[in-house]
Design brief:
Helix content is about 35%, strand content about 25%. It has eleven helices and 17 strands. Strands 1, 2, 3, 9, 10, 16 and 17 form a seven-stranded antiparallel sheet that branches. Strands 4, 5, 6, 7, 8, 14 and 15 form a seven-stranded antiparallel sheet that branches. GO terms for molecular function: protein serine/threonine phosphatase activity.
């Protein structure tokens, strides 16, 4: 039943498959709550085994783009489920945070800060009406060796090799971002001969002075730049006519730092004092209809115009060739347009969580082209099982494609839902 378990460390594949197979055989005959308990036990067992080996830098995984649909990969432990297993169990677990770390990093007063001691994440991707699913997503806990820090993102590949580009970015970007962050963070650390009290004092000053957020912002921009440079140097991936969007999120305590490249989007779901739902868009879609983006494209001799059969969609074209027609103005890859205004610098935004904030949704444009922010927030909030929230959003998007755009091919979709409060238990 569990015949496609895949892991990032190949030498441990057989060992972990035996653990997972023994669990999968009986998992569907027991209660869902027991499934979750057994899953966590299996993950913990593998984690303990991994700790006995040389500690490796966490690397990204991806959702295989070849299948119709799949749940997300738990990158931190290299865990991947089959489609059937994903649908039965969902993509869910509680992420424990050390109370000292959480209280120090969450420097907003506690009465204004949501409970971040238990974070629940749901991830799902589904192929549209293309031959290959070019969307991918990732999730990493304790990112960059920072307890309680979460890194997640969704990526929308495009062009002939978009799925290859998206997969490569999901694997490589986390390593680059972690390296950039750790390099800059070390500058604030005292010498190794300093006392623990000195280290803690320096770290608290680092947080209280706002340097934490600034360092993440600079690190994200630097990592995206390095990622784009690597793509052009990697002869295995043709990134001249192909590329990927990216919207990524770092969650550290009550702070969200987002990096956005292209037309994928992140929104925040909150509840008002009267109990009503509020949808707040955290990123700006980097499209040619955005004046400042269009001005840069035209200044670099790129062209922007709509196709006759798509009069509402502005696209970016080469100066003397009606190609490639990108619907976004920022992307990783797509080197055919890099001289003509397309850039790989992400737009960075910062958000501080408050008591009413419940969850964040990251999704590719296959969702946003047919659903509003409010519809997505309502769908997530009304889904009984949080593990199914991301799949519920994609199901709603696919229904909208069929009913509202019957003459168009449904686009691929990838969704990550990150919940903050622990008031609702998911069994």
């Amino acid at each position: 039943m569990c015949n496609c378990v895949d892991f990032l460390v190949s030498s441990l594949t057989d060992c972990w498959r035996r653990i997972c197979d023994s669990w999968c055989i009986s998992s569907f005959a027991i209660a869902p709550s027991e499934q979750v308990r057994l899953l966590n036990a299996a993950v913990n067992a593998r984690s303990r085994y991994m700790q006995k080996r040389q500690r490796l830098i966490q690397v990204g995984g991806y959702v295989s783009p070849s299948g119709d649909e799949a749940c997300a990969t738990k990158i931190g432990t290299g865990l991947c489920f089959t489609k059937e297993h994903a649908e039965a169990l969902g993509f869910i677990w509680n992420l424990s945070q050390r109370s000292s770390e959480a209280s120090m990093l969450c420097h907003t007063p506690h009465d204004h800060c949501p409970d971040v001691s238990n974070i629940i994440v749901s991830g799902f991707t589904k192929r549209g009406q293309k031959e290959v699913n070019q969307d991918a997503l990732l999730f990493i806990e304790d990112f960059a060796s920072q307890a309680g820090t979460v890194f997640c993102g969704v990526f929308d590949g495009h062009g002939p090799n978009g799925h290859i580009i998206a997969r490569h970015v999901v694997h490589a970007l986390p390593k680059k971002l972690a390296a950039c962050w750790q390099s800059r963070y070390r500058a604030f650390r005292p010498s190794l001969s300093g006392s623990d009290d000195s280290f803690n004092s320096t770290r608290k000053k680092f947080v209280s002075d706002g340097d934490l957020i600034g360092t993440w912002k600079v690190s994200i921009v630097e990592a995206f730049n390095l990622m784009d440079q690597e793509l052009i140097l990697n002869s295995l991936e043709d990134c001249f006519w192909s590329g990927t969007t990216a919207v990524t999120l770092i969650k550290q305590g009550c702070d969200l730092i987002l990096g956005n490249l292209g037309d994928s989007r992140a929104i925040l779901g909150s509840t008002a004092e009267d109990g009503s739902l509020i949808a707040k868009q955290l990123t700006i879609d980097m499209k040619p209809d955005l004046p400042r983006e269009a001005e840069r494209i035209r200044r670099c001799n790129g062209r922007i115009f709509e196709l006759v059969y798509e009069p509402t969609v502005k696209r970016v074209w080469l100066p003397h060739l009606n190609s490639p027609g990108l619907a976004m103005t920022r992307a990783l890859g797509d080197y055919c347009l890099k001289k003509y205004g397309l850039i790989s610098e992400p737009e960075i935004t910062h958000c501080r969580l408050t008591h009413g904030d419940k969850f964040v949704v990251l999704a590719t444009d296959g969702v946003w082209n047919v659903l509003t922010n409010e519809e997505v927030v309502k769908t997530v909030a009304s889904t009984p099982a949080r593990a199914s929230a991301s799949k519920a959003v994609i199901d709603a998007a696919m229904d909208a494609w069929k009913s509202n755009c019957p003459s168009s091919k449904a686009d691929d979709c990838a969704v990550v839902c990150l919940f903050f409060d622990s008031s609702q238990n998911d069994h």
